[in-house]
Design goal:
Blueprint lengths: L5 H6 L1 H4 L3 H28 L4 H13 L3 H23 L10 H26 L3 H9 L4 H31 L11 H12 L2 H30 L13 E2 L2 E2 L1
Antiparallel strand pairs: 1-2
Helix pairs in contact: 3-4, 3-6, 4-6, 5-6, 6-8, 7-8, 8-10, 9-10
Length: 248
């Protein structure tokens, strides 16, 4: 038997890719949770809302300061425990076993993502020129209109590179979902390796798959950055320095 079979590395990629839809579902839903909750947390911190700001700061500190693997386990074992307590206390009959494992993974990944995205979004919003905000207020715009029409369009441009990196980190983070019984790419690879005992080749296949996904995402975000980037303005030439179409 060969110590390393390079052909097997590439031949088993299609089998592993059968679990790609699960990884994509995990990534998309967790990203949406991260962006939306991150925006709420960022706004709470910016406006220094009493009590809520302290809660947001504590939440972000805890999530950013603990490993995602621990958060996955806490979610996987903690939510059923809370539902069981609710059933015993209030006489409800929630079927804990009916909850798909992917739900726990989505919640954990989404909450983890939100803590990191909140800081990116906060910094991006605060980078918007305050003069533009004041000008919008003088035009009679409401707070919501200013947020949608003035702040967010500019903040998105600033935040795009960091949010792209955050999404790529999330893609790689989904590989831990197998620890809570979700059959994603990594879990499918482990199952395959358990059949043929070619663990090294399987993990090489997984490395190639994640690398290709990362490269594709990086290029997508580069295209978006180029599309939404604000071109440099040409220098303004004073009228007195122009004579007969010639710059003096």
């Amino acid at each position: 038997m060969k110590l390393f079979d390079i052909k097997l590395v590439f031949s088993q990629i299609p089998t592993i890719l059968s679990a790609l839809p699960i990884t994509i579902e995990l990534t998309i839903i967790a990203t949406l949770i991260g962006y939306l909750l991150g925006l709420v947390l960022a706004l709470v911190k910016i406006h220094k809302t009493p009590v809520l700001r302290q809660i947001a700061v504590a939440y972000i500190s805890i999530i950013r300061g603990t490993p995602i693997l621990v958060q996955l386990y806490i979610t996987y074992y903690g939510i059923p425990l809370m539902l069981k307590h609710h059933n015993l206390t209030y006489g409800t009959n929630y079927n804990i076993n009916a909850i798909p494992a992917i739900v726990f993974a989505i919640i954990a990944l989404g909450l983890n993502q939100s803590a990191f995205d909140a800081e990116v979004i906060r910094a991006s919003i605060q980078s918007v020129d305050k003069g533009q905000v004041e000008a919008a207020k003088t035009l009679g715009m409401s707070g919501g209109q200013i947020l949608r029409r003035v702040i967010l369009p500019q903040a998105v441009v600033v935040a795009l590179p960091s949010l792209g990196n955050s999404l790529i980190s999330l893609i790689k983070g989904t590989s831990l979902a197998f620890t809570v019984a979700v059959v994603d790419l990594t879990a499918e690879g482990r199952i395959l390796a358990g059949r043929n005992f070619r663990y090294f080749e399987v993990y090489c296949s997984l490395a190639i798959i994640y690398w290709v996904i990362t490269v594709v995402l990086e290029n997508m975000f580069k295209i978006l950055e180029n599309k939404f980037s604000i071109p440099d303005q040409p220098p303004v030439i004073a009228p007195e320095k122009v004579s007969g179409g010639v710059v003096k």
